[in-house]
Amino acid sequence: MSIEINNESGVAVDEASLQRLITFALDLLHVNADAEVAIVLVDEAAMEQLHVQWMDEPGPTDVLSFPMDELRPGTEEHETPAGLLGDIVVCPQVAQGQAETAGHSLLDEIHLLTAHGLLHLLGFDHADVEEEREMFGIQRDILVGFSMEEKRRGGTRRR
């Protein structure tokens, strides 16, 4: 599995935990171990530029996803073929405000945004109530399962 992380945000982020999260999620969703994904952490100015360019919306946002090979989750019997999933772009500065509002750590918020972005790469959306219920349910399963896995392995979480 190729997971590239590029932190251009100026904010220190536990990149190893992001790698573990993506690995956990792709395994849970039966995506081929040879799939490739990139996570780019950017500052507010860069995120605003991407948000305007690709979504035609002003201001920075928390996460954007740029799917490539249109891969979808697999099953226990048939895992997703190898391919390029795409890029997840996260803005830690926007995430910080959201983390404070939600009452959890910046790392928890970045994990949430990364899982959310990954699901978009895999074709999930939340345009209607049914799609939202499905996507957010899987997102919750990823985050809860990952948190349990981190506790089992003795991983530390910043609060």
From TrEMBL:
Location(s), subcellular: Cytoplasm
EC number: 3.1.-.-
Entry keyword annotation includes Lipid metabolism: no
Chain sites annotated for binding Zn(2+): 116, 120, 126
GO CC, any one term: cytoplasm
Major location category of this protein: cytoplasm
Cofactor(s) the protein needs: Zn(2+)
Origin superkingdom: Bacteria
Free-text cofactor note: Binds 1 zinc ion.
Enzyme's top EC category: hydrolase
Family statement drawn from the similarity comment of this UniProt entry: Belongs to the endoribonuclease YbeY family.
Function: Single strand-specific metallo-endoribonuclease involved in late-stage 70S ribosome quality control and in maturation of the 3' terminus of the 16S rRNA.
Name under which the protein is recorded: Endoribonuclease YbeY
Lineage: Bacteria, Bacillati, Actinomycetota, Actinomycetes, Micrococcales
